[in-house]
Structures are given as structure tokens and as C-alpha cells.
Amino acid sequence: MTPIDLLLSRKSHNKLTSPAPDNDQLEILFKAALRAPDHALLKPARYRVFEGDSLARLGDYFVTAALNKEPELPQEKQDKLRGKPLRAPMVIVASAVLKEHSKVPEVEQILSVGAGVQNMLMAAHFQGIGAMWRTGGMAYNEKLMELLEFEAGEMIIGFIYLGTEEGNKRAAKPLEIEEFVTRFGE
């Protein structure tokens, strides 16, 4: 497959199983992520890797954070939150540490980390690793950010679930670009 074929065949994988990326594969993911555009080289990206027993700890953090916001959260919802990180053998919490800069607004820093996550997803796909970028309410929960020991000005960009795609691989859906593109000119 050519690089363009690989690029056009990327899709999200919501059913992931072991094995997780190994250290060499993970290093490639991070190197790809850190190649994203970064105006003024502010290096806003941070990545926290959860695998093995730490996935259960992340699930506990989810529950603690949710209970902080909604103390009467039903047990069924707590159990569901606790199990979310266990949907893959590895979860990376991608975040941006926003810095005040005269030429680089916060939105550019957020987009830089988002571009880094996309590079990570592509590097995963190129290596045959299944990946899914998720957000949801936990991505905006301040208590979770406290539990993850975030710096001042740091925010979650997403939870990147990584592993081996479970079941039959389906082809990516065809793309219809006409509804998204307006051309100007001749």
C-alpha cells in the first residue's frame, strides 16, 4: 500500500484487545505526534500512558471525578465509567498545557496538540495498531484533571485508545468530498 492509500484507509476502531503497542511502536507514535505544527515551538503537548493495572486506576479516577460533580450518581453509571478505560489495553490521555504568548493564541496551541493526536492515529494505522480518539464528559471534568496532576492551564484534548482491532476488519467508508468542499476560482 502506498502512503496515500494508508492515509485514505484510516478509520477508528472501537473494539480493541491485546496486545497494546510495544515500546518501539509507542516511541514512533510519540515521535509522529511531536512532528505536528507548533507555532513558536511552545511544545504544549503532554501524554500520560495507562496500561495494565493503571487502566483500572484511570477508571477509578473517572468515578471519583463523576461523583465529585454528581454525588448521587447511580452505581450502574459508576460501573460503566469504571469500565471505560478497560475497552483497550492502552489509553493515552492527550493534553495541552496552554501558555500565554503574544503571537500564539490558545486555540493554536489546542490545534497543535490535536494535530499531534491525528499524527499519532496515522502512525498507529501505518503500524497496524487499532486506535480510537474519544472525549466525552470526562475530557472536561476539572476533578479528573486534578487527579491526573495537571499543570495550571492544562486541558484534556482526548483519550486515545490503542490496541489490536478485534474481529473482522471492515474497510473505511468511501469519502464524498463534494458536500464539504467549495471551490473558488475559474
Automatic annotation (TrEMBL):
Binding positions for FMN per the UniProt entry: R10, K11, S12, R35, H39, W133, R134, T135
Cofactor binding note of this UniProt entry: Binds 1 FMN per subunit.
Stated family: Belongs to the nitroreductase family.
Molecular function per GO: oxidoreductase activity
Matching CDD domains: YdjA-like
Keywords of this entry: Flavoprotein, FMN, NAD, NADP, Oxidoreductase
A Pfam short name: Nitroreductase
Keyword Zinc assigned: no
EC number: 1.-.-.-
InterPro entries referenced in this protein's UniProt entry, alphabetically: NAD(P)H_nitroreductase (IPR052530), Nitroreductase (IPR029479), Nitroreductase-like (IPR000415), YdjA-like (IPR026021)
Protein name: Putative NAD(P)H nitroreductase
Domain Nitroreductase positions: 8-163
Cofactor(s) required for function per UniProt: FMN
